[in-house]
Amino acid sequence: MKYQYTNEFRHNLVEWFNNEKRDLPWRRTADPYKIWVSEVMLQQTRVDTVIPYYNRFLEKYPTIQDLAYAPQEELLKMWEGLGYYSRARNLQAGVKEVVEKYDAVVPDNRHDISKLKGVGPYTAGAILSIAYQKPEHAVDGNVMRVLSRVLHIEDDIAVPKTRKVFEEAVEMLIDEEHPGDFNQALMDLGAMICTPTSPKCLLCPVRDYCIAFSEGDTDKLPVKSKKVKTKKVQFKVFAARDHQGRYLLEKRPSEGLLADMWQFPMIEVTENSISEDTFQQNYNVEITAIIDKELLKFKHIFSHLTWEMDCMLVGVEQNMVLHENVKFLSVEQIKSLPMPVPMLKILNVLN
Ligand code: SF4
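^ Those are the sequences you sent over. The predicted structure of the assembly is below.
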């Protein structure tokens, strides 16, 4: 890859970062554990949302040992609302490995750190460069967007192997003396100036060294092929209340989407079945009253999937012994359980 402005680009970018950087809690530390927590939280979640979670999380788990041995249900409760709960479980598994295998010191090389659970090439590079000042690449969507424009890279960023092209680009450009600042500057430039649509080129510190700007085709980059459509699944959700005012809750399986989180019973709506009947059979209960047929209707969008939720409030009686992982609980008890966002919405209506 040939680029004639490496020094100028690097200098302007890092200088801009030092003048303009946002004051974020994880920028006041060089502790690799804390930077790791922030990077995991920031995956797929906005900075403003992450800040209060990050502060609460580190108050609860100030050291790597605190997190390594925290009860999982408590951990999921701390993560509640952030979504992508496997991130929390993987973070804890990775942290535990550091405590047990590396004497609680986060590895400072890509080989070892990349073997930790949940630590992908981006997170590894972010921790190594920000906490340990190693000149390592940390390529995320923001970085790919910025560099596709600056260097006029036309490879399709939706194709996984394209990441390699951008990793090499960062290796070529990185400021060896300030690698952490350099990587964070690229991310910030992508978030604040070189945005997906209408980049603010007139405010950009590297405009003079940006090939897409000089060629006038910033709107054509990055090249990204269309995503496949997300799948839609319809559910009837039962807020099922017994005569003591308790609600029926179940714990999701330990594997897969929203593993180990608690939810109101959900029945997938299919053409050939009646959701109410399936609900009664599956949960060993009998519906004695329909209190509100249209309690709440909403969509919940995951990255690959949309849940269309139609929730009703019913009175029920227990027929037989409930299955394991299914319980009648008071609203107070439910509040202490980790629940995904769509279930919290329903709980709010009931409360
Ligand atoms: S000049 Fe425009 S397109 Fe180029 S890096 Fe700056 S904001 Fe992005």
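DSSP finds 15 helices and seven strands in the chain. Residues 146, 149-150, 193-194, 199-201, 204, 206-207, 210, 212-213, 218 surround iron/sulfur cluster (CB under 6 Å).

Shout if you want it in another format.
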